[in-house]
Amino acid sequence: MKNETMMQYFEWYLPEDAQHWKRCKEAAPELAEHGITFAWLPPAYKGATGIQDVGYGVYDTYDLGEFDQKGTIPTKYGTKEEYIAAIKAMQEQGIKVFGDIVLNHRMGADEQEKVIATKENWGNRFQDISGEEEVEVWTKFTFPGRKGKYSDFQWNWTHFDGTDWDEERKEKALLRFRGKEWDSGVDSENGNYDYLMGDDLDMGNPEVMKELEKWGKWYLDTTGIDGMRLDAVKHINFEFFNQWLGKMREYKGTDFFAVGEYWSPDNNKLMNYLNETGKCMQLFDVPLHFKFFDASHGGGNYDMRGLLLNTLMQTDSWHAVTFVDNHDTQPGQALQSFVMEWFKPLAYGIILLQEAGIPCVFYGDYYGIPHDNISPVPGLKTLLKLRKDYAYGPQHSYYDHPDVVGFTREGMPEKENSGLALLISDGPGGSKQMYVGKQFAGKTFRDAMEKCPEKITIGEDGCGTFRVEGGSISVWILEE
Fold first, then answer.
1. pLDDT tens sequence across 140-175
2. For 174-230, what is each residue's pLDDT tens digit?
3. Is 231 a catalytic residue?
4. Which listed residue (199, 231, 325, 447) is catalytic?
């Protein structure tokens, strides 16, 4: 019996030194020791800005740091051989590795093409703001450095719905190509949120579908990954991943794990996506992230009774991957919504120690973010150990006070001494009577976070009166 725990093994500002795959390989034993069972690695293919590309400016998905393209052979993270060695090292430690799969767009084309296009309103993609006109666009991908190895497929404008740059006029504009429509079955923000960036793939084009299926199988064979983190799913036709993942799973012969990034604080949108896609993947619990963000900025006045309301963890815990922050929410990034430092241990206590969801630990919280002088989250490694050793058995929740909330886990016989009581407070602190189980009657509990020095004796009824300091977290476990 083990608790699955994911780690996002990168942050945005890693050094551009092509050494990250080596760091992954070296870290594998320590991560396994701390209970990490899933590792999500960054996009491994060559990006438009070469060694500087975090991986989301996808240029060539067949170049995993093998070909001299975009001014470099290795990617920001290293070479193809080092990537595969890192995956194997993780797997040898019992850690399943997830590839970051970015299929929405391409960037950094090799040649321009002249196309007839219509300008559209960024805020309402159903509204044309020009007639048809000839534009010059970067849409031809010939991959001269790879010379057809692995695939002779070359992308041209017919494989895309549109782009955002007219080279002839040196103008940034949302351009929809003649004869193309934005894919339906996408998020309704901006009228239609098919277009995100770069050259937007036309998922209705049979040549595109065939090539993506061929590439997916090649990637599985080449890397040996155990699962996928799927980027920007709300911008891709909702039917696509149900079909594509089905083909990948059929080919792999296993129901391998997939988690999608549907970026919306509206839990109804996440539930709708799960239903529309036949629940073919888990989703990151973005609504819960924003609850943590709001609570951390609430100045102690956030109503903690509502901390988990309208989150994916609450409505469909089986499909929820919970997280506190990630590479997009960290300072300086497009979706910046960084949870304040004081609240981070409280948020991690919630996602790591409760029953619901699969928690994902952010690299920047585990190691710190030197770029912004951000230190590692205090107590995070302790919480990971508590998850591994104590967070088992039935849960009893106590979200019944505006300041002080928590839950208990009764433990299970197979995990000796397991069971715990968690309390967090965004206000002045306080105490709460909670049930941990009659098997603990007469036994003593201590605060593993070492915030409260006293010991607590459990009553004959299996209850104890547990305490937490102000703006803090305490996790009470059996004193062995």
1. 999 999 999 999 999 999 999 999 999 999 999 999
2. 999 999 999 999 999 999 999 999 999 999 999 999 999 999 999 999 999 999 999
3. yes
4. 231
| Beta strand extents in 178-243 (DSSP E only) | 199-201, 227-230
Query: Which one is catalytic: 166, 226, 261, 285?
Result: 261
pLDDT tens readout for residues 3-32? 999 999 999 999 999 999 999 999 999 999
Do 99 and 41 contact (CB within 8 A), yes or no?
yes
* Residue 375 DSSP class: P
CATH number of 6-103+206-389, picked from 3.20.20.80, 3.40.190.10, 3.40.50.1000, 3.40.640.10: 3.20.20.80
Domain segments of the chain as ranges: 6-103+206-389, 106-201, 395-478
Question: What letters, b where the CB count within 10 A reaches 16 and e where it falls short, cover 418-457?
Answer: bbbbbbbbbbebebbebbbbeebeebebbbbbebbeeebe
Asked about 171 being catalytic, the answer comes back as: no
Q: Are strands 420-425 and 472-478 parallel, antiparallel or unpaired?
A: antiparallel
| Dist. CA 417–CA 77, nearest whole Å | 41
| Cα 477 to Cα 351: distance, rounded to the nearest angstrom | 17
Q: Residue 448 and residue 455: Cα distance in Å, rounded?
A: 11
- Please tell me the CATH code under which domain 106-201 is placed: 2.40.30.140
What is the dotted CATH code of the domain comprising 395-478?
Answer: 2.60.40.1180
